[in-house]
Amino acid sequence: xxxxxxxxxxxxxxxxxxxxxxxxxxxxxxxxxxxxxxxxxxxxxxxxxxxxxxxxxxxxxxxxxxxxxxxxxxxxxxxxxxxxxxxxxxxxxxxxxxxxxxxxxxxxxxxxxxxxxxxxxxxxxxxxxxxxxxxxxxxxxxxxxxxxxxxxxxxxxxxxxxxxxxxxxxxxxxxxxxxxxxxxxxxxxxxxxxxxxxxxxxxxxxxxxxxxxxxxxxxxxxxxxxxxxxxxxxxxxxxxxxxxxxxxxxxxxxxxxxxxxxxxxxxxxxxxxxxxxxxxxxxxxxxxxxxxxxxxxxxxxxxxxxxxxxxxxxxxxxxxxxxxxxxxxxxxxxxxxxxxxxxxxxxxxxxxxxxxxxxxxxxxxxxxxxxxxxxxxxxxx
Length: 381
What we know:
alpha+beta; Beta-Lactamase; Arc Repressor Mutant, subunit A; 3 domains; 5-stranded antiparallel sheet; 15 helices; elongated
């Protein structure tokens, strides 16, 4: 059993105190490294954040102290594969090492004779290393490296114990900071997606098409079944007709290459006995943030979607282009527009490209939005 002194306990508490740092991921990284260096008697340190489904080559954000400029980048680019820990991580992706020192992985004389030590560690004054794995719910979300010079000597068994006692607190603090960061990013993306959509009534869905938020306008249009989500207290379900549109769009997203998903949208007119009204439903994917995939579904009464041709022609569209814009606003797809106007789908696509260019938009949602703006301006004038 490792003997623990009052001073050792104070060191553990000092590092844990640093995890209370507020201000985001970067602030937490800095506070933890400062405390870890002080209480673990390290001369330099680094703090990696691990991307999902990756190993050490893909660590994307690093904080470090006491290391030369470009040292971390050199490690990742040139020496990561030579790290004594690399084979364990690469060949055993589910393996958890907890806390390890360089002496536990490779004899000191062997490390001292390696290219990695000669060209990377020794120039940085690093002679002894400790790796501290940060794990939450079985998933490694980060890794800390603590380094000592030759003068400070190797990390002891007691040092390893102190690191083990603090790693859980650091990992949980990092998870909270990452979750808060992701939440802000998701909200920004949702706001950006909604800004490109017409109408003010919208619903946010998770990746299982469950309602996680609905505006008062959406509640009014879709019925009282959504009223609970306005207070974010309970999950509510979509009416069957709307769920059908959402399910179809989700299948399109799943079958589309990741690079093209952000450009997808669905815009359909629906009528159902449950709703007792005709609605135009427009749906887009919000780009996933750390796996938090969301959909934004905008709803409005279909009769409000139809725009007169005159104001559109005044914007520089041809009569045919204006007719297509009206049908796009009604939620018709290219094939349906072609059938309605008795032209080919290729002709519809050609007209749409021209409309996109004239309106300065990149998708059908933008076309519908510009059309409604034109109609509103025409009526107010």
